[in-house]
Amino acid sequence: MRLLFVGFGTVGQGLAELLLEKKEILTKEFGLTWQTVGILDKKLGNVVAPEGLDLQEALTAAQNQKLLEGVRGERISGEATELISGLEADVLIEVTYTDIKTGEPAVTHIRQALEKGMHVVTTNKGPVALFYEELIDIARANNVHFLFEGTVMSGTPVLNLFRETLIGCEFQEIKGILNGTTNYILTRMEEGLSYEDALKKAQEFGYAEAVPDADVLGWDALAKVTILAKVVFGSRAKPFDFPCEGITSITSSAVVNALSRGKRFKLIGRVWRERNLVKAEVAPEEIDINHPLGSVMGATNALTILTDSLGEITVIGPGAGRRETGYSLLNDLLKIAREQAR
Ligand code: HSE
Q: Global pTM?
């Protein structure tokens, strides 16, 4: 499998670490052999090598905040949007920053790759929340996969859970904590840290978006809720069709006061069906500390799914982070490898 990385920041590096660590087992157990034929990154530069570059070398350079200049391969200049169509690869790994309002430049990267017959795996929420229907159609027309498990709850299985494991269930409502940064901030505020210091820590740990407004204003959770509305309920809505409120008006004293009443503020994303309409919203809610969602702390995410056949199911797991999000891409790659082996 020839891999082309577009973006080589936290998430791309997380995937690279896992690919290197698990190289032998991937081949032995899953028949997946891979080589990296290119890395295009706005900050680090672009390097391509049709016979495969040394991913460890690239990872070390990136982790030392160096340009990819020392990495063996051919250096090319230009924007990824102009380069992708001219490159040969089997899978494009799209892990550039997310823009929830336009989906760019990621959606252009993805369109070009799919049209060229490359599979695409991504954790980029903007393109999926805004252009899911179009991108799936292009993928089908070109007989390739467009996979994005990590867009919701990073590597914790959610989209696969709906699409594969819970097949045959009817889903009535999905609600949960879908943003790690805000849950981390609310947790640390409960411990006495100020909003500003808690946000700074969330940035240090790599949970927050490049521009953290998208987290604290609720937009990141809104994008995830929209993806769930599309994938699970077949909605064609766009993110800002749904009401959205973030956590910026929640004060430390409100957090402490809620706790004294056995409640915790959580930023809740919710999707449900009302007659023939799919509804969704993001807003802070006071949740009972005894509810499964009320005990989810730090950057952890959780989703409670109301089904016809099983009642309530709650999935709890990491929703952000370098290796956690990297794993979702590895999971998508293994799915492609499995399908190809059939
Ligand atoms: N900024 C996001 C979060 C990253 O905090 O949950 C994962 O999508």
A: 0.95
The residue to mutate among 187, 203, 207, 329, having the most atoms of ligand 1 within 8 angstroms of its beta carbon, is 207
Do residues 199 and 99 both lie within one domain? no
- Residue 7's nearest CA partner among 160, 121, 88 is 121
DSSP secondary structure code for residue 87 in this structure: S
Distance 330 CA to ligand 1 centre (A): 18
For residues 199 and 213, is the Cβ–Cβ distance under 8 A?
no
Number of compact structural domains in the chain: 2
What was the pLDDT predicted at 67?
Answer: 85
What lies within 8 Å, CB to CB, of 85 at 6+ separation is 112, 115, 116
What does the alpha-carbon distance between residue 231 and residue 225 come to, in Å, rounded to a whole number? Answer: 10
On the CB side of 250, how many CA atoms lie within 13 Å of its CA? 27
Query: 71: CA distance to ligand 1 center in Å?
Result: 30
pLDDT (tens digit per residue) in 12-54:
999 999 999 999 999 999 999 999 999 999 999 999 999 999 9
| Domain range for 170 | 161-318
